[in-house]
Amino acid sequence: MTSPFCVLLLHKIVTMKKSHILAIGIVAIAIGILISASKDVTTYSNFAQATQSGDKVKLIGQLVKDRPVEYNPEKDPNYMAFYMKDESGEVRQVVLRAAKPQDFERSESIVLTGQMQGDNFEASDMLLKCPSKYKDQEIYVRSEKKS
Q1: Residues of the chain with CATH 2.40.50.140
Q2: SS3 for the chain, per residue?
Q3: What is the number of alpha carbons within 13 Å of residue 88 lying toward its C-beta?
Q4: N or C: which terminal CB in the chain sees fewer CB atoms within 10 Å?
């Protein structure tokens, strides 16, 4: 048994202009894109908050220059480990599965995207802010590991 409302709705859909159907489709696609883009939003955090949440976060900090940077391109060109101090002063080891960027040691600040894995921060992306004679330069590095 079909209700009169369903019959009326079906009749309206069938008799709609193609431009109206196209507009509704475009709006539905736009909503889908906005929803998928909102899932990639991460919050700025520090090591302690990243440990507590376990979520993907962004960290801002500086390279600890008196600790070793582990990078051996002959052994694994897509593995780099270093120590970073976050804005609250906590120092942790960071692992990035990508090649070491040029002038990495000269960076003024580092922005990492990733999450804690035990005591280490596993970075999926890294943005370096480097000193320059004329203006600030930024270097963006994306990890080879799929997250």
Answers
A1: 43-142
A2: CCCHHHHHHHHHHHHCCHHHHHHHHHHHHHHHHHHHHHCCCCEEECHHHHHHHCCCEEEEEEECCCCCCECCCCCCCCCEEEEEEECCCCEEEEEECCCCCCCHHHCCEEEEEEEEECCEEEEEEEEEEECCCCCCEEEEEECCCCC
A3: 10
A4: N
Residue 3: predicted pLDDT: 74
- Which value, in Å, is the radius of gyration of the alpha carbons in the chain? 24
Residues 128 and 110 sit within 8 Å (Cβ to Cβ): yes
**Integer Cα distance of 79 and 71 in angstroms:** 6
Q: What is the dihedral of CA 144, 32, 58, 104, to 10 degrees?
A: 40
| pTM of the full structure | 0.65
pLDDT of residue 135: 54
